[in-house]
């Protein structure tokens, strides 16, 4: 992996390469040419001989099921963003833990104000490929350093906060503090967040999950999941203003590339192993 990239930040390389592989596949379910451009450049910088993760990325041998899952998720979050922009063409979208994703290019309607926020080491790489403008901003910060909210607060909104594949890497108490802070500062905003089911984070099951993550994609120990919730309505108990609007799981998708995994939608616990919840923060 590139110097200075921690285990959690490295997860963004995996999602980026998934986007690129899917874009180059037959009948792609996601079109993300920017990911192909970025991975072509990163291939020259990674060290396949030294790092198993780099080897998997550069040789394009990421697990094909993971590629399809990540592409379905990206497409679904694009759809959520576009739905928000249909309702509020001048709305403000904050992509929390954006990684090296290029959602802004995929959903730009010519009016949206878009913020990409991630750890400084990821934003430093991202700035090689993206330039900030009046409507597109890059913020290099931990999401837990709430100063990132100051520039966003200059806008009147409405606001949509997206956290695609991020909250599980934060401690549970940090997720709670973050959601409550967004609610306090941006009343009326919408939040879309992917969460892991806390059922799978019980000690023995978590060991199995950690083993799978470290062996499937060779991520270090800091990239293991730290927190989850048991039910989409759990966050409503954190504050009376938090309103559950809906939820979505990968397996709800009728995407043929999911194959037999589509059957998992019939088992609630598996359907909600890792899923997305949509809230209003009043
Ligand atoms: C699995 S990647 C997802 C990236 C992107 N959302 C996507 O789906 O392609 C998780 C991202 O969360 C970011 N992240 C994790 N903890 C963070 C924090 N405390 N503050 C900001 N970003 C964070 C990581 O750096 C990484 O880019």
Task: Describe the structure concisely.
Helix content is 38%, strand content 16%.
Description:
With 282 residues, the protein is an alpha/beta fold. It has one domain: 3-Layer(aba) Sandwich (Rossmann fold). The chain is built from ten helices and seven strands. It has a seven-stranded mixed sheet. Helix 8 links the parallel strand 4 and strand 5. Helix 1 packs across helix 2 and helix 1 packs across helix 4. The longest helix has 24 residues. It is globular. The protein starts with 6 loop residues before the first helix and ends with a strand. The relative contact order is 0.13. The model has no long low-confidence stretch (mean pLDDT 95). Bound molecules: S-adenosylmethionine.
| Overall morphology | globular
Low-confidence stretches are: none
Please list the strands of the largest sheet in the order they lie side by side. Answer: 3-2-1-4-5-7-6
- Distinct small molecules bound, one entry per kind: S-adenosylmethionine
Strand content: 15-25%
Structurally, the number of domains stands at 1
CATH class: Alpha Beta
Itemize the secondary structure elements and their pairings:
Elements: H1 7-23, H2 33-42, H3 52-58, H4 64-87, E1 92-96, H5 103-107, E2 113-118, H6 120-126, E3 136-140, H7 149-152, E4 159-163, H8 172-185, E5 189-196, H9 203-217, E6 242-249, H10 268-271, E7 274-281
Parallel strand pairs: 1-2, 1-4, 2-3, 4-5
Antiparallel strand pairs: 5-7, 6-7
Helix pairs in contact: 1-2, 1-4
The structure holds S-adenosylmethionine.
The site of S-adenosylmethionine (SAM) has 20 residues, from α1.
